[in-house]
Amino acid sequence: MVQNIATAALLLFAVGMVAIGLISRKKAATVEGFVLGGRRVGPWMSAFAYGTTYFSAVIFVGYAGTHGWNIGVASIWIGIGNALIGCLLSWKLLAARTRRMTHVLGARTMPELLEGRYLSKNMKIVSACIIFVFLMPYAASVYKGLGMLFSSVFFPDLDPVADTAFLGMSATNLCILIVAVLTAAYLVLGGYTAIALSDFIQGIIMIAGVVVLVVAMTLHPNVGGFGNVLSGLAKVDKGLTDFTGGGQWSFLLTNILLTSLGVFGLPQMAQKFYAIRDQASVKRATVVSTVFALIIGCGAYYVGSLSRLVLSEVPKGGTDAIIPTMLMNAFSDSIPGMILLAVILLLVLSASMSTLSSVVLTSATAITVDLVFRLKTDEKRQINITRLFCLLFVACSFVFATFNFAVIVSIMSYSWGVVAGCFIGPYVWGLFSQKITRAGAWAGMLGALATVLIMTVSGTAANLGGSTLYEAFSAASKNSPLFGVAAMGVSLFLVPIVSLLTQKYKFPKEHVEKVFSDVAA
Fold first, then answer.
1. Per DSSP, what are the bridge partners of residue 41?
2. Is residue 387 part of a domain?
3. How many other C-beta atoms are found inside a 10 Å radius of the C-beta of residue 104?
4. How far is 362 from 35, CA to CA, in rounded Å?
5. What's the predicted TM-score (pTM) here?
6. Does residue 228 sit within a domain?
7. Number of folded domains in the chain?
8. CATH assignment at residue 438
9. Which residues lie below 8 Å from residue 195, measured CB to CB, with a gap of 6+?
10. DSSP secondary structure code for residue 467 in this structure
11. Exposed/middle/buried for 15, CB within 10 Å: 0-12, 13-18, 19+?
12. 324-376 tens-digit pLDDT
């Protein structure tokens, strides 16, 4: 019965997403329309596009379950940090400046923005490659998280990884394939306009789903209502009620910085600023995206903190299986519960598809707009090439997701850290300071990349004793949040320092005046 209800809900959702792609097709007839929706996206759609791209299945299946189980209610601070730093501060500091500068430079992507700001075609090429390569595991982790949840609902009697569900594929991989095909369909048809419109609808579904999830899990018999949450957790472990994180405060701070400050350097997040209609829309979008993030982020981590009350032990699938197991235990034994579970499934699917579509579009255009289009070709062919690379990226990330890699949180953090670290320094400093030089930008980008690679290699080497290379890498990747925070710190530090030391190579006055024209605060 639960599978039938969930299937009906998902079919309706799928039809709606494909319809959005078809409706948006006319607005994707040009490269600018396909990549940025013609830069005419309003505040509400921009805010929801930002928020839904921010949160995916990983926050529910990976982060919320893992951190809620390990540190309890203190994990909610991550959601608060996401809202206040990742949304409010990001929009306040970056949105208006980014929109203006990309208009002045005619930039449609992060590599184009860096090329125009620093007069470096090589920086455009390198940054495009970084985006394409390192956003792939990011997308794969989202697929993996969604696949874990859906396999637990549709194939509850199968091992999600070991058992075959259909055509030789595991339950998880089959679910991943279905989501990949659906994501590719509406993205390839409608481009950015389809993303923005679907994100608005998916955002509404996410808000409704989180409200349902919070209320339903709080009323679970093992929880007993809001008034019993803290007392119940204290009986399990008093540390779970410590809002400071107790002995794990440094771990908590690292994850807040990675998932909140890291947003400042993610190309798929900055893209929302390029496309917003006008400066007046920025203020309204700032408020809407912040409220959205508070609801989604805090709601997800709150539910994760209840896991120790609902479950007696970590499920067979590890911490990634905590939230899926909680949902099945709570909702699969009654018709009303099954309907609620279908709503929650749509919540997670909406969160994931919005993130995936933005990541796919960002990665595909990094190659096409920034590399392939250097070869002269007509616009119709450019759009077809962009669509082709969208499909290629979806296919590659699907294959990557089928690998039995380390836990979702680790691979997500690793990818997030590399990309955010490489771009946060050159992008943020480049918006605010006229004194940043090309050498400074290169130092920040390459310094961040080197930091993650060195820490990964040294961590893997330290774990090699008696372990395979894969096992050693998996063990090292558990520290990936720290790698990412270190990379961001290096990038933000090196860019101004190296720029200060290379002022004799600063840009011509005419270029600086052009870049910062109408960009004053």
1. 276
2. yes
3. 16
4. 8
5. 0.82
6. yes
7. 1
8. 1.20.1730.10
9. 49, 187, 354, 357, 358, 361
10. S
11. exposed
12. 777 777 776 666 666 666 766 776 676 666 677 777 777 777 777 656 555 55
